[in-house]
Amino acid sequence: MILTSNRGFAEWGQVFGDPVIATALLDRLLHHAVVVHIEGSSYRMRQHADLLPPVQPSTSLPDAQPKRRGRPPKAAASTPDAG
User: Fold this and answer.
1) DSSP secondary structure string, 30-76?
2) Range of the domain at 41
3) Is 2 within the bounds of a domain?
4) Is 4 a member of any domain?
5) What sign results for the dihedral spanned by CA atoms 8, 14, 16, 22?
């Protein structure tokens, strides 16, 4: 499934009128998802560029590292505290 939006995740609470519903929806959509963040002008609107304001860089998504899947790595053998 491919889902597109012109709104950042932080704005979904306003779009749906309830931040709790938006959070639950995003939780389910983003579980095991690959998010592709695209910035720039619309390909379809390139002929009408003079009618649109310039595109501002989005700050809604932080530079996130992809999440690891599976079990967390085993912790190194801990040494007992001297004391």
Assistant:
1) HTT-------S--STTGGGGGGSPPPPPP-SS--PPPPP-SSPPPPP
2) 9-51
3) no
4) no
5) positive
Within-domain flag for 58: no
pLDDT, one tens digit per residue, over 45-54 is 777 777 767 7
The pLDDT value recorded for residue 12 is: 93
Q: Is residue 79 situated within a structural domain?
A: no
38 vs 6: CA distance, rounded Å: 10
Give the separation between CA 2 and CA 49, rounded to whole angstroms. Answer: 26
pLDDT at residue 1 in the model: 87
Residue found by looking up tokens 């560029």 in the block: 49
Low-confidence ranges of the chain (pLDDT < 50): 83
Element (H, E) at 77: none
pTM value surpassing 0.90: no
Total count of domains within the chain = 1
